[in-house]
Amino acid sequence: MNNKDQILVLGAGPAGIGAGIALGDRAVVLDNCPDLGGLCRTIVLDGAVFDWGGHSFHTPHAAIRDLVFGSLEMYEQTRDARCYVQGEMIPYPLQKNFPLLGNSAIRRECASGLRQSNEGNGAANLEEYLGTRFGAGIARHFLLPYNRKLWGPDLKHLAVDWVEERVAGPKDDEDKLTSCSGKRIPLQSDSRVAYPARGGFGEIMRALAQRLRHLYLGQEVVHIDPLRRKLATACGDVFHWQQIISTLPIPQLLKTMNDVPPRIKEAVMQLKGLPLALVLVVIGHSVDTPVQRVYSSGPEIPAHKIVINHNSSPYLRSLPHHGILAEVSLASNQADGDLQRQVIQGLQLLGLIRSADEVRTTRILRVPAAYPVPTTGRQAVVRQLKTWLAHRGIISIGRFGEWAYINSDEALNRGLDVGLTISQCDDDFDLARAS
Predict the structure, then answer these.
(1) Confidence of residue 429 (pLDDT cuts 50, 70, 90)
(2) Which of 155, 197, 204, 268 shows the greatest Cβ crowding within 10 Å of its Cβ?
(3) DSSP 8-state assignment for residue 182
(4) How far is the C-alpha of 79 from the C-alpha of 2, rounded, in Å?
(5) Could you say which of 3.30.160.20, 3.40.50.300, 3.50.50.60, 3.60.20.20 is the CATH number of the domain covering 3-39+199-271+374-434?
């Protein structure tokens, strides 16, 4: 193959791996990290297994499920998640399980508000949607404070186009599409989730990457010349290309090019990423609960989400040291020591550990942009940016390539779709030329 016919895939996360698999020998996959997987990587700390965020595998795409389950052994189980509300722990999601709360006043307020709610149609922003969709009680006691804890105090600048795929409805007969329907549905109290039978979530990416024929890690892209179809890396390597599929964050991608006009630079500044602190806590024994996730809306717990990762598989449960991960949003100004102490105190309050003496090791991983913030108007901005890039031979996909709040399975699916579309177009062109 002439190297000018190469298709460069930037990023070896799920979207990049999916595109590389679909393109086969034509794809050259580059990633600046020494390890693959993007935000789906796994880290082992003091014998405990953590992921970069709380991950489990569930997908509405039958082909993606078959691909993953055909690449490595997976373990599947019913999800066990809880909501912590003013000192009480009930099953997730709260909007369907608030009758289990011991506080009768909160129960009545939630039930009363729900009777007056509507479908949330026409809501202009997330704050308005949560109040009209779930009623004043559920919104006030959990959904509003939880989302403010995650996204920040102003929910009026957030769109609602993503909510129906993420936030479960309040009635039992909702959100019951089949698991392989092609459309994501919110997780329920009885949802089935999967995880690698051995190791962490990153093992999925490692297994899939075995299908890539040309994968180069530790290759940071520093310059892209769309006119000459050249790409240079920090290592001094130069790649020629016919087309680029980029899964890099769009702002990072644009910094590698010299010909970016002011209007595009102004547009990209409207995209916001959410910083997270991932607090890794290792305890010297197995956890004392079967719970896999705890969602907390109150200020007494610094994390909005607690991940008890070792309940993801029997293999992880069998390890002598277990890991608990706390996702803390907007914690960039907090010193590591203070944040670690607050998280450990929160774990004690939740009953996940009995005392701080159980903690063997802690570490904080700071992720500058863990989630693309779903601001109003971002879709129009992304369309503008993707169109400009496409005219230069660059297709932008993935969570931060499309600024879409999607999971790894959806990113993998979009990567496969793009790669298969390119391959089919090339086959059609070759067939037409031969005839």
Answers:
(1) very low
(2) 204
(3) S
(4) 49
(5) 3.50.50.60
